[in-house]
Amino acid sequence: MSSQFFPVFIQIVVAIGFAAVALGLSVILGKSARRNATKDSAYECGMLPIGDGAPRFSVKFYLVAMLFVIFDIEVVFMYPWAVQFRDLVANGNPTALVSIAGFAGILAFAYVYALKKGALTWK
């Protein structure tokens, strides 16, 4: 059993050894540049880096993004049902339309709830 894993062990040793040798040689042979404030500052396409690096987004942005993902997943669940609907009806499945109507009803209720709470209003 252990003889089967011997080639894998050798490959792991060679990979770790190669990474260690490559990093060691770059430290030993590489040139280290002199540091100064100008070269250590952030480069912003020729503009002076003034202010915060990342602008702050409103919570509404993230709320709308989460709602989009939730209602986008709805389509992922509805598409396979729509593809199989004709076969479901042909096989005499009476709950085919009721099940998707219940699913769409719950999502419609969630959408109305989000509208009433003001989740989709931008101010």
TrEMBL record:
Gene3D superfamilies: NADH:ubiquinone/plastoquinone oxidoreductase, chain 3 (1.20.58.1610)
Chemical reaction(s) catalysed: a quinone + NADH + 5 H(+)(in) = a quinol + NAD(+) + 4 H(+)(out)
Subcellular location, principal: membrane
Membrane topology label: Multi-pass membrane protein
Superkingdom, natural source: Bacteria
Subunit (UniProt): NDH-1 is composed of 14 different subunits. Subunits NuoA, H, J, K, L, M, N constitute the membrane sector of the complex.
Keyword Chaperone: no
PANTHER family for the chain: NADH-QUINONE OXIDOREDUCTASE SUBUNIT A (PTHR11058:SF22), NADH-UBIQUINONE OXIDOREDUCTASE CHAIN 3 (PTHR11058)
UniProt keyword terms in alphabetical order: Cell membrane, Membrane, NAD, Quinone, Translocase, Transmembrane, Transmembrane helix, Transport, Ubiquinone
Matches recorded under Pfam families: Oxidored_q4
Listed EC numbers: 7.1.1.-
Function noted in UniProt: NDH-1 shuttles electrons from NADH, via FMN and iron-sulfur (Fe-S) centers, to quinones in the respiratory chain. The immediate electron acceptor for the enzyme in this species is believed to be ubiquinone. Couples the redox reaction to proton translocation (for every two electrons transferred, four hydrogen ions are translocated across the cytoplasmic membrane), and thus conserves the redox energy in a proton gradient.
Enzyme class label: translocase
Membrane-traversing stretches: 6-29, 61-82, 94-114
GO molecular function per UniProt: NADH dehydrogenase (quinone) (non-electrogenic) activity; NADH dehydrogenase (ubiquinone) activity; quinone binding
Name this protein carries in UniProt: NADH-quinone oxidoreductase subunit A
Cellular component terms per the entry's GO annotation: NADH dehydrogenase complex; plasma membrane
